[in-house]
Amino acid sequence: RFEGWGPQGQDHWPERYPYCGGALQSPIDLESDLLRFDPTLRPIEVQNYNLSPNEQLTLGNNGHSGEYTSTLSLSPMMSISSLHNRYTAAQLHFHWGSSSRPAGSEHTVNSKQYAAELHVVHYNSDKYPNISTAVDKSDGLAVLGVLVEVGMFNPAFEHILKFVNDQKVKVPAFNIRALLPTRLDEYYRYDGSLTTPPCYPSVLWTVFRNPITVSRKQFLTLATALYSTNAQDSASMSLNNNYRKTQPVDNRLVLASFKERKYGLQTWLALLPEHG
Ligand SMILES: [Zn+2]
Fold it and tell me: How far is CA 155 from CA 162, 210, 212, in A?
C-alpha cells in the first residue's frame, strides 16, 4: 500500500520505499536538449498483439483495493521481439489527469504534459520465469509508453472503457496493437524505473514520439469511472491525477530513434554523434 500522489503522497514515498528516492527514477521530461539521436534504435516490433475476441482478458478496476488504476492482464503470447532479449507482455494500465484537467501523462515532452499515458508492461522472459521475479532486476522489465491526447474518438480504447467500473471483470480480447501509435519507429529510449512504489530501477523505457487520441467523452469516462476509498474517510473519491512527477535525469542518456526537425543546423550538429 502507498499513500497516493497528493501532498501527503509521493514526496513521502522514499521514507518507506528507498528506491523511490534513488537513482534512475521515472518518469522524466523528454527535453530536446537532452536527446541524442541513435541510428541503431530499430523500429519496435510486437508479436501476437492481435488477440482473438474468443480469448478473455481480466480487467481489474482496483480503486477499492488501494491500488491506483485499471489494469488489464495480457496474454503471455504477446511480446516485444526487437530488443536484445524477448520481453513478454504482462499487463497494461493508464495514468490520467482529472475531468477538469486533462493533463495526467507521466512523461512530458519539453515540459508539455499530455492528457493521459498508457503503459504496456513486459518482463524479460529470456532470463526470468515471471514478472514477479523480474520486477526488481536491472534488466527485468520493458515498458512501452504511449502519450494520449484528447481529439478523435478511439475505437480500440472503447474495448477497455466499456468495462471500466469498480470491479474485476472478464473482457473479450481485441487487437492491442490498435492502442499503439501507427508509427513504432519513432520513440525515446532510456533506463528508468517503476513510477509507483517500490520504484525499482528495472525498466527499459520506450516512449513513442507520436501520441494517440481519445475523444473528450472517452477521457471523461476514464477520469470519472474509478473511485478510491480512503480508509479514514467513508466517502469514496473519484480517482484521478494518478501520475508521478517528473524525476531528475542526472547523468542518464536519453536516446531518440528519430531526428528532431524543428531546430536549426547548429542544434542539429550538436546532436550528432562525434565522427571518429
Ligand atoms: Zn504506469
Answer: 11, 18, 11
